[in-house]
Amino acid sequence: MNYNNILTKTEDGITLITINRPKKLNALNLETIQELHEAFKTANKDKNTKVIIVTGSGEKAFVAGADISEFADFDIEEGRELAAEGQKLLFNFVENLSTPVIAAVNGFALGGGLELAMAAHFRVASDNAKMGLPEVSLGVIPGYGGTQRLPQLVGKGRAMEMIMTAGMIDANQALNYGLVNHVTTPEDLLPFCKKIAGKIMRNSSVAIGSAIKAINANYKDGVNGFDVEISEFGNCFGTEDFKEGTTAFLEKRKADFSGK
User: Fold this and answer.
1) What three-state secondary structure class fits 33?
2) For the chain, which residues make up each domain, given as ranges?
3) Catalytic residue IDs
4) Could you tell me the pTM of the whole model?
5) How far apart are CA 67 and CA 7, in angstroms?
6) Mean pLDDT score across all residues of the chain
7) pLDDT in tens, 91-139
8) Residues 74, 25: Cα–Cα separation, whole Å
9) Residue 47 class from Cβ within 10 Å (0-12 exposed, 13-18 middle, 19+ buried)?
10) CATH superfamily of 6-201
């Protein structure tokens, strides 16, 4: 599929999705959000894709925020619809994919950009990355899950400070906060992410999908994460991967998982 604002490439089990609006610092407009939805949906259904990496084009930005010009004149109901539709199409959608998603954060990840990175299953940043949620400086709050996911990742107090001050933190501070898992040089960012992806791909993709579902359940209001874990644990016993994994262990060989 051809896209106007993103690039996709699948190779060696990894689908790389690159947001490609460098003149706009890869800002998320409505068209880009829709295209990202389609790209993630396609990659998640692709049996050849075991891991998805999302990044931004160029060296300046992962995503420098949302395209403010699109909603500057919205009223209350339009604002609510904007947030609800965006969360449904992209941010919640990415978080709940069964295929692991790694955000390779290069440069600025601000507003909707940081919210996209936080929707990924984990994050790796280049040492020139800057992250923040500056929405209150525009008279609005983060609307794509930022007020919910940031406290989950860095704690309530740090999230309150970051959102209230509208300030940015650098990659090392983000690492210290637990917002990112690793920091690399810009040159090593994608190779490092692909190295982690390689480790993921050695394991059962069906079990990983179950683990994602169980982990996410702990953060859903009214859902008992332990119950989801018990259910998903049991479901694994009915998979070909479970039979292969346990047989390979007992036979002292490497497992050859089919993802079924």
Assistant:
1) helix
2) 6-201, 205-250
3) 115, 135
4) 0.95
5) 19
6) 96
7) 999 999 999 999 999 999 999 999 999 999 999 999 999 999 999 999 9
8) 23
9) exposed
10) 2-enoyl-CoA Hydratase; Chain A, domain 1 (3.90.226.10)
